[in-house]
Amino acid sequence: TLQQANAMSRLGTETAFEVLARAKALEAQGRSIINLGIGQPDFLTPDHIVEAAVKALHDGQHGYTPANGIPSLREAVSAYLHKQYAADVDPSRVVVVPGGKVTMFFAILMFGEPGAEIIYPNPGFPIYESMIRFTGAKPVPLPLLEKNGFGFDAETLLSLITVKTRLIILNSPANPTGGVTEKSEIDNLVRGLEAFPKVAILSDEIYSRLLYDGRKHTSLLSYPELEDRLILLEGWSKTYAMTGWRMGYGVWPKQLVEGATRLAVNSNSCVNAAAQFAGIAALEGPQDSVDGMQRAFDARRRFLVERLNQIPGVSCVEPGGAFYAFPNIANTGLTAKQVELGLLDQAGVATIAGTSFGAHGEGYVRLSYANSMENIEIALQRIQEWLESHQ
Ligand code: PLP
Fold it and tell me: Mind listing the GO biological process terms from this record (predicted)?
């Protein structure tokens, strides 16, 4: 047998991809499966964005680009962030990468090593914990609680910081819960962090354009005092329905830009050149499709949450953002994994057990409402029938 590096045994995965594979296999056997498992918009990338990539290809944009991204794209990102948050971000601090995930990968590689501690949300995007373990650093979970609408609590977070803490990962709006952290809590955190100037922050704001009920996104970028230690993770995947294009970016503190760019040179070299031109069109072009998708998600969200709360044994807090609901199923007497497997194999609905997002996810399942209203209606009927006959 081949001898793999020890670190490989510590590398986890994202169960969403396994559930997707199982759902596809069941479909191939002729079963009807409604997929509320995968977290990607069910919309197509808007036409004007696709056209920009086609044009770039015809214009001969076929070669490597600078590793940190083409200058006009980094300028477009800077202008976008100014428009959204009145933030002053020099384009030299923007590093374009193949998907939001890669900024996460780079930041955790940059700070993680044996002896270091990294605080991360739990339940949270599974790659945080996986990557932290891979580097040999100690993962320190920040529990996110239903009673706080799954937003983080600044006091709890600050109490987890030790002399070994190198990095804190934040995510709002959040996967898998749809939780949105209140601005007042972020204010408290930023104030509290003054006492810990050596701790870096990775703020995963990939769902920044998906908020509901009139909420406004609070970006960590709007706190200039964090400029020297904030890494902003953003991208095109969720906002512009571009998951398959692999386009994301990080805004890095000045002193970390060189390291992030070196990581890019050592891994992806650059992002697909034509996709970068599409990225410019997305940021600079009309935003009506973004608003249209947000409205469609909102209508599904309301319907989904209302219907979930009608199912005996299930209760669901209203998610403030992203496109996930995270119903509490503890009163059904079933574990999260039992519900996930039963719903997929017997009821034909793909969901993801809360435990796939960390130990604090027990008692919950994640449902993505990035699916048509019609499918969501059928799925809820199936979920209700299955749960009523299994508790
Ligand atoms: N961060 C969070 C919280 C996510 O949910 C996702 C995707 O599911 C990502 C990052 C990764 O996005 P991308 O597809 O752009 O790599």
Answer: amino acid metabolic process
Minimal-distance CA residue to ligand 1 atom 8: 39
Tokens of residue 376, six digits: 């969501």
State pTM to two decimals.
0.97
How far is the centre of ligand 1, averaged over its atoms, from the C-alpha of 237 (Å)?
A: 7
For ligand 1, atom 12, name the residue with the nearest CA: 100
Distance 379 CA to ligand 1 centre (A): 24
CATH of the domain at 187: 3.40.640.10
Looking at the fold, whether 148 and 30 belong to one and the same domain comes out as: no
3 state DSSP class of 140: strand
Q: What percent of the chain has pLDDT over 90?
A: 97
Provide φ and ψ at 34, rounded to 5°. -100, 125
- Report ipTM (2 d.p.): 0.99
Q: How far is Cα 185 from Cα 172, in angstroms, rounded to an integer? A: 12
Q: How many angstroms separate the CA atoms of 269 and 80, rounded? A: 24
DSSP state for residue 208 in the 8-state scheme? T
Which residues approach ligand 1 with their CB closer than 6 A? Answer: 39, 99-101, 125, 171, 175, 204, 206, 235, 237, 243, 248
Atom of ligand 1 nearest to the CA of 204: 1
Measure 127 CA to ligand 1 centroid, in angstroms: 9
Q: Would you say residue 324 lies in a domain?
A: yes
Asked if residue 366 lies in contact with residue 354, where contact means CB atoms within 8 angstroms, the answer is yes
Please give the residue range of the domain that contains residue 348. Answer: 6-44+288-388
| 173 Cα to the center of ligand 1, angstroms | 12
> Residue 384 sits in a domain of what CATH number?
3.90.1150.10
Index of the ligand 1 atom closest to the CA of residue 39: 8
Fill in the amino acid letter for 35: N
Q: Quick one: 271 and 341 in the same domain?
A: no
Q: What is the pLDDT of residues 112-164, one digit of tens each?
A: 999 999 999 999 999 999 999 999 999 999 999 999 999 999 999 999 999 99
